[in-house]
Amino acid sequence: MKNLIALIPLLPFIGFLINGLGRKVLPKGVAGLIGSGTVLASFIISLTIFLQGNYAAPVVHLFDFISVGSLKIPFAFQVDQLTTLFLLIITGVGFLIHVYSTAYMHEEAGQHFARYFAYLNLFVFSMLLLVMGANFVIMFIGWEGVGLCSYLLIGYWFKNVNYTAAAKKAFVMNRIGDLGFLLAVFWIIAKLGTVSYNEVFTAANLAKLSATDITGITLLLFVGATGKSAQIPLYTWLPDAMAGPTPVSALIHAATMVTAGIYMIARSNALYQLAGTTNAIIAIIGAATALLAATIALRQNDIKKVLAYSTVSQLGYMFLALGTGAYTAAVFHVMTHAFFKALLFLGSGSVIHAVSGEQDIRNMGGLKKALPITYLTFLIGCIAIAGIPPFSGFFSKDAILLNAFAYDKFLWAVGLLTAALTAFYMFRLLFITFNGSFRGTEAQRHHLHESPIAMTLPLIILAVLSIAGGFVGIPALFTEGGEKLAEFLKPVINPEHTVHVEHSTEWVLVGLTTGIAVAAIIVAFLRYRNYKAEQPSAVGRLLENKWYVDELYNGVVVKPINALGSFANSFIEKSGIDALVNGVGKLVNYSGRQLRWLQSGQVGSYVLLMVVSMVMFFVLQFFLRR
Amino acid sequence: MPINYYIFLSLALFIIGIIGVLTRRNVIIVFMCIELMLNAVNLLLVAFSKMHHLAAAGAGNAVNNVGSEGQLFVFFIMVVAAAEVSVGLAIIVMLYRNTRSVDINFLNRLKH
Amino acid sequence: MSISEILFYALSAVSLVSALMVITSKNPVYSVLWLIITFFTISGHYLLLNAQFLAIVNIIVYAGAIMVLFLYVLMLMDLRKESEPQKNKWLKLAGAVAGGSLLLVLVAALRNADTRMAEINTGNIGLIENLGRVLFTEYVVPFEIASILFLSAMVGAVVIGKREKTIRTTTNTLQQEKTAEAVTA
């Protein structure tokens, strides 16, 4: 059992090593096979663990990682219910995306193909480390590892300057968040002297923390989560991250990595349940992010950008759930979102593949006939994300909205509005892309084709999961003995209070949510059934330019820092440090030039100087030092 | 004899050698002065060797070989000096052959 | 005052005077001769100290071999005449002052030094028998290394002293002779 658990992250790591080191010699087929096979093996092991269902001793101690004074940080894994769920999502969805990638990336040169799979495996390894770690430090290793892989994969086509700039942006923004995470860990160490979950989250230890400690720690952890999970104010990197290959967007920037923040907060739920202020902040930021991203998504024309903002929006939902104390609902949404968002991204990849790399939906249209499988699965994904019963998105979103309703009516209203916007922009995307007539070039039209089986098969599997995935968490409202997920997660996530809403109210809420989503879909259908280029209104332009947030950040943060940097460069560096350093050099140079005259080659003067210095030494030795 | 006397005698010889080196320009004379300085040191070494021998004998030391190291050192210094003179004179001969002079200041041509 | 003390003073006086003559005489040949006298007096000191082996070696190696080499070089260069360029007199003064001050400093430093006695006329460590035993047991490795030093000095002297042009010409002539032989054969 112990070895089996260690194998889960180890296998992708071995795959990374083989692909990374042998990238110049491995043929593409072998590289793809190794990349996918190791993840598949991890998935099978995870499935075994899940089916065994034996969580009696979740912590597996491998070796001592850091041992300094009284601080002992073991390298240990903790595989409990929450981790198992994430393991299944990561390795399962990850495997599908690996398979998809073998076809999608097939045009890359062999070396870069293997490099891609090496990065992807390294990412899976880091992500597994993140969710399996039994303490905050191991989690932080994975946390940094996924950030690194995200950077590497966004900048995968490193010859394009814009892409590398996007990679840098993602990296820097993540670092800002990571600092918060790190400070929180330090704070925990300073107060409790341990970072292991099962020691930190004991009642005795939690009682040691003052209210300030708890608020501070939870807020700092949340800062880390905003960076990784793209919440206000650190969300702008995620849409830019679409510069990476589409399967990467599906795996990292939709299904797994961006949910790391949700995992971390769900993992620390014992801590967060004590922090009322932080929860309110989380809920507000989550709701605001959801709404903001949804409005931006309304007017984006890049197929991946729409999905990216939709991801940000859905992450906002999850944080709304976390803030309202509905940890199970958040994890539930992570799961369903992983299914349908991976599906949507992979579907968009299939579309992009079909139209020869075009990403602007204004140049698409009418793809329904050429890409029947892609269209169907994409449609399922859209229905799922829009929250139409009985697709998976409906259940998770409903759970979140229900909790929000019980927590605060205003937040609930925001959530409801966002749900309507979500349905609207997703179906706008669907109709513009697949309905109407084709608006691309003739060459693209001839090239239109359905993707190979390696790409459509993951789509179909994910579509099935998107339909059925919601049934694990059917609320008690619909069937007796629902809430399987909550029951499953109970040992890890045990909220002190559960929401009690009258069944009649709940029915009204469900009906309202569904009705508003359907209405939005109808509006979208009427408006975008036959898309024609249109002049954007003032608001439209504002949305198209993403509320000018990037420009605002540029003006407020980037430019002053650049100015500070150039000031430091021109004044402190050039006329301060450089002058000092060069001054030393000049001094040596000058004195050397002067002393050169002593080195005359005249033996007589050498001897004279030698004798004089001997006299001086003797004088010093015998007369002055006494 | 008190060791002082030997110290001062060899000091005087040594200083004479130094002054010779400093004041003469003929390379051969400079070289001879160096030999003089070496001899001054040799003399002092032998004197010290005998001094230590006497001290050891006074202390009733059975193995009476104390001090022979000093004299062996003199022997080795002579060996080195002989080697040095052979090479040094060869250099001087070359200098004379190239410059037709034995002026020590011409030795700065070794720089080039 | 015993006979050996008298001898000590006399030898000291002669050695100092002759050493001074070495650096003051104009003619380098005279300098060499005065230096030989100095070496002889130093050998006398060795004898007084009962270091017979060193006394003999000093005379053979220094006064004999080395100084003869000096004389030989001088004769080779034909430097009997007053050809030595004189140094700037200020430089000379500076040199004398520097040397004098070194003497002063050292004498002042050592005037209160140990007044133990150095053995005169007695003791047998300076005899060949004793020195030889030590030299060939404890110091045999340095002794052998000294021979390598000599070898390298010899090679060095030959390399420095040889005339490249002449060597080339001799080889040329040798080759010419060989070709001539071949032609006649």
Automatic annotation (TrEMBL), chain A:
<feature type="transmembrane region" description="Helical">
    <location>
        <begin position="603"/>
        <end position="624"/>
    </location>
</feature>
<feature type="transmembrane region" description="Helical">
    <location>
        <begin position="116"/>
        <end position="134"/>
    </location>
</feature>
<protein>
    <submittedName>
        <fullName>NADH dehydrogenase subunit L</fullName>
    </submittedName>
</protein>
<feature type="transmembrane region" description="Helical">
    <location>
        <begin position="30"/>
        <end position="51"/>
    </location>
</feature>
<dbReference type="GO" id="GO:0008137">
    <property type="term" value="F:NADH dehydrogenase (ubiquinone) activity"/>
</dbReference>
<feature type="domain" description="NADH:quinone oxidoreductase/Mrp antiporter transmembrane">
    <location>
        <begin position="135"/>
        <end position="421"/>
    </location>
</feature>
<feature type="transmembrane region" description="Helical">
    <location>
        <begin position="140"/>
        <end position="158"/>
    </location>
</feature>
<dbReference type="GO" id="GO:0048038">
    <property type="term" value="F:quinone binding"/>
</dbReference>
<dbReference type="GO" id="GO:0016020">
    <property type="term" value="C:membrane"/>
</dbReference>
<keyword id="KW-0812">Transmembrane</keyword>
<feature type="transmembrane region" description="Helical">
    <location>
        <begin position="83"/>
        <end position="104"/>
    </location>
</feature>
<feature type="transmembrane region" description="Helical">
    <location>
        <begin position="370"/>
        <end position="390"/>
    </location>
</feature>
<feature type="transmembrane region" description="Helical">
    <location>
        <begin position="306"/>
        <end position="332"/>
    </location>
</feature>
<feature type="transmembrane region" description="Helical">
    <location>
        <begin position="410"/>
        <end position="432"/>
    </location>
</feature>
<feature type="transmembrane region" description="Helical">
    <location>
        <begin position="453"/>
        <end position="478"/>
    </location>
</feature>
TrEMBL record, chain B:
<comment type="subunit">
    <text>NDH-1 is composed of 14 different subunits. Subunits NuoA, H, J, K, L, M, N constitute the membrane sector of the complex.</text>
</comment>
<dbReference type="GO" id="GO:0042773">
    <property type="term" value="P:ATP synthesis coupled electron transport"/>
</dbReference>
<keyword id="KW-0813">Transport</keyword>
<keyword id="KW-0874">Quinone</keyword>
<protein>
    <recommendedName>
        <fullName>NADH-quinone oxidoreductase subunit K</fullName>
        <ecNumber>7.1.1.-</ecNumber>
    </recommendedName>
</protein>
<keyword id="KW-0520">NAD</keyword>
<comment type="function">
    <text>NDH-1 shuttles electrons from NADH, via FMN and iron-sulfur (Fe-S) centers, to quinones in the respiratory chain. The immediate electron acceptor for the enzyme in this species is believed to be a menaquinone. Couples the redox reaction to proton translocation (for every two electrons transferred, four hydrogen ions are translocated across the cytoplasmic membrane), and thus conserves the redox energy in a proton gradient.</text>
</comment>
<dbReference type="GO" id="GO:0030964">
    <property type="term" value="C:NADH dehydrogenase complex"/>
</dbReference>
<keyword id="KW-0472">Membrane</keyword>
<feature type="transmembrane region" description="Helical">
    <location>
        <begin position="29"/>
        <end position="52"/>
    </location>
</feature>
<dbReference type="InterPro" id="IPR039428">
    <property type="entry name" value="NUOK/Mnh_C1-like"/>
</dbReference>
<keyword id="KW-1133">Transmembrane helix</keyword>
<dbReference type="GO" id="GO:0005886">
    <property type="term" value="C:plasma membrane"/>
</dbReference>
<comment type="function">
    <text>NDH-1 shuttles electrons from NADH, via FMN and iron-sulfur (Fe-S) centers, to quinones in the respiratory chain. The immediate electron acceptor for the enzyme in this species is believed to be ubiquinone. Couples the redox reaction to proton translocation (for every two electrons transferred, four hydrogen ions are translocated across the cytoplasmic membrane), and thus conserves the redox energy in a proton gradient.</text>
</comment>
<dbReference type="GO" id="GO:0048038">
    <property type="term" value="F:quinone binding"/>
</dbReference>
From TrEMBL, chain C:
<feature type="transmembrane region" description="Helical">
    <location>
        <begin position="90"/>
        <end position="110"/>
    </location>
</feature>
<dbReference type="GO" id="GO:0048038">
    <property type="term" value="F:quinone binding"/>
</dbReference>
<comment type="similarity">
    <text>Belongs to the complex I subunit 6 family.</text>
</comment>
<keyword id="KW-0520">NAD</keyword>
<comment type="function">
    <text>NDH-1 shuttles electrons from NADH, via FMN and iron-sulfur (Fe-S) centers, to quinones in the respiratory chain. Couples the redox reaction to proton translocation (for every two electrons transferred, four hydrogen ions are translocated across the cytoplasmic membrane), and thus conserves the redox energy in a proton gradient.</text>
</comment>
<keyword id="KW-1003">Cell membrane</keyword>
<dbReference type="GO" id="GO:0008137">
    <property type="term" value="F:NADH dehydrogenase (ubiquinone) activity"/>
</dbReference>
<keyword id="KW-0812">Transmembrane</keyword>
<dbReference type="InterPro" id="IPR001457">
    <property type="entry name" value="NADH_UbQ/plastoQ_OxRdtase_su6"/>
</dbReference>
<dbReference type="Pfam" id="PF00499">
    <property type="entry name" value="Oxidored_q3"/>
</dbReference>
<feature type="transmembrane region" description="Helical">
    <location>
        <begin position="55"/>
        <end position="78"/>
    </location>
</feature>
<keyword id="KW-1133">Transmembrane helix</keyword>
<keyword id="KW-0472">Membrane</keyword>
<feature type="transmembrane region" description="Helical">
    <location>
        <begin position="30"/>
        <end position="49"/>
    </location>
</feature>
<feature type="transmembrane region" description="Helical">
    <location>
        <begin position="6"/>
        <end position="23"/>
    </location>
</feature>
